[in-house]
Design goal:
The longest helix is centred in the last third of the chain and has 13 residues. It contains 11 helices and 16 strands. With about 475 residues, the protein is of the alpha/beta class. The protein is globular.
Length: about 475
């Protein structure tokens, strides 16, 4: 089933086409202005999680899956400021072929739609779309089109992942995808384009004034996240450190700290675990939820606050409206005026190290690129699709792929994950990995193994350990 959608206001006309199955229609042949077209859908997949989302978590064994397989014949294109055309078809972990509806349109029609989607004459925001109008992820014909910036620094590093010869990776990796959102790169036409995608991949259902109050405060980054160190032969090496139990007793701390940069996220408990996880943090990736909730969830393990090393850089994933409220309070240095974190003072959560020049906010295009090209879960076909997204750790690994030459991942799920506790700081207990319904952990596990096997990352793995602590 294919639908055409037309959003009109006084200053903008934009036609957008989506490919979704008939089962997505909730009430009648016309919902939220969508008109039915009988063209068969190219988007179909088996459900992996149960449709019932009344239980937010579950744990235990999960089915085994294949690694992701790429099958397409397109070339990357685009220059500074351009929107990049999508690949025609790629095959994901469970064998579902995800074809852009652009494939069913003529090239002229596709270019016309993209032109409308980026119409710079737009002066007013389109009416918000309601995620409840869709029973599964809607696929727009500009779903896999992204802003790109000027090409990043030309690496002289012989071992750089950008020199990979693996065709499956080269075909989907965009070296100049726009990474950061800031006040100068979200105009009205961009707002309207991004309003077709649910958070954190866009602004679907959000009010323009409420979001843009925060966005207009975000400064443009003045420097790249990382630069080569002297004597590094032009290479930037990064360790991405998760919180997986596989690190307990690993003695990987020195190896981690020997990297040029160390990136952590979420409940990064370091004190008392330096031998296993190191003690340096160059970048801390977080959401408003993770930086606030970690103080409560992991206090008993010794967590007191987010890392605050001298010169540290902070990267935020804007996953929902609460994050934009957080950003407004943070940059205005005022207590948050609305929402879940009302009356909190966000700058207090960064110790003494918060500086606007060292604070980065990830762009929705970058987050959607990760989901669409690497981590497109079958769960997006389920009724709880709006909550499904990659983990903070997954976003962090892909941030490292865009900004580093050599990436090592520690504390992430491996094939033998059942042997280890949920977190490395859980001592003298035996726990299991918890599978939250909003993340596809098995898909991520297989992706890390695939990237390791094709030598894009080095994934820390260990065999032969007994379950529990060491």
């Amino acid at each position: 089933m294919r639908y055409s959608s037309t959003h009109l206001n006084s200053s903008m006309k934009m036609r957008s086409t989506i490919c979704i199955q008939k089962s997505e229609q909730k009430t009648s042949p016309t919902i939220s202005g969508l008109q039915v077209d009988e063209t068969p859908s190219a988007f179909s997949s088996e459900h992996f999680l149960p449709v019932n989302n009344s239980r937010p978590t579950f744990s235990g064994d999960r089915p085994k899956d294949k690694s992701f397989v790429i099958d397409d014949d397109y070339e990357l294109s685009g220059t500074k400021g351009n929107l990049t055309p999508p690949p025609d078809v790629f095959e994901t972990t469970r064998g579902a072929k995800l074809a852009d509806s652009a494939k069913t349109n003529s090239e002229t029609s596709r270019k016309s739609d993209l032109k409308r989607a980026s119409n710079h004459e737009a002066e007013t925001p389109m009416p918000p779309l309601d995620v409840k109008s869709f029973n599964k992820l809607p696929i727009w014909d500009f779903e896999d089109v992204y802003n790109q910036d000027a090409l990043p620094r030309r690496t002289t590093c012989p071992q750089s992942l950008r020199n990979s010869k693996d065709e499956s990776f080269k075909k989907i990796f965009l070296p100049n995808i726009r990474l950061y959102m800031y006040k100068d790169n979200v105009n009205m036409s961009e707002w309207n384009r991004l309003s077709h995608f649910n958070n954190p991949f866009g602004f679907m259902g959000f009010q323009y004034e409420e979001v843009m109050e925060a966005v207009k405060l975000i400064p443009k980054p003045k420097e790249p996240l990382f630069s080569p160190k002297p004597g590094s032969n032009g290479c930037v090496s990064c360790a991405v450190v998760g919180t997986g139990g596989i690190l307990n007793g690993s003695r990987m701390g020195k190896e981690i700290d020997d990297h040029d940069y160390v990136i952590r996220m979420n409940g990064a408990v370091i004190k008392g675990h330096e031998e296993d996880v190191g003690n340096r943090t160059s970048v801390y990736v977080h959401t408003a939820h993770s930086i606030t909730a970690s103080k409560h969830f992991y206090k008993k393990y010794g967590y007191t606050s987010a890392p605050a090393d001298k010169g540290i850089k902070y990267v935020m994933i804007p996953e929902g409206m609460r994050d934009f409220h957080w950003l407004t309070g943070l940059f205005k240095r005022k207590t948050i005026a609305a929402g879940q974190y009302r009356n909190l003072r966000p700058w207090m959560y960064y110790g003494s190290q918060f500086e606007e020049s060292r604070f980065y906010v990830l762009h929705p295009d970058f987050l959607r690129y990760i989901r669409n090209r690497f981590l497109k879960s079958d769960n997006l076909n389920a009724t709880f699709w709006p909550m499904v997204r990659p983990t903070n750790g997954a976003f962090t690994i892909f941030l490292a792929l865009q900004t580093c030459d050599i990436v090592s991942a520690y504390g992430f799920m491996t094939e033998d994950y059942e042997k280890y506790n949920n977190h490395y700081y859980e001592n003298n207990v035996t726990t299991q990995v918890i599978f939250y319904s909003n993340h596809d952990y098995i898909l991520e596990k297989n992706t890390w193994k695939k990237l390791h096997d094709i030598k894009i990352i080095r994934l820390y793995q260990r065999m032969g350990s007994k379950k529990g602590t060491e």
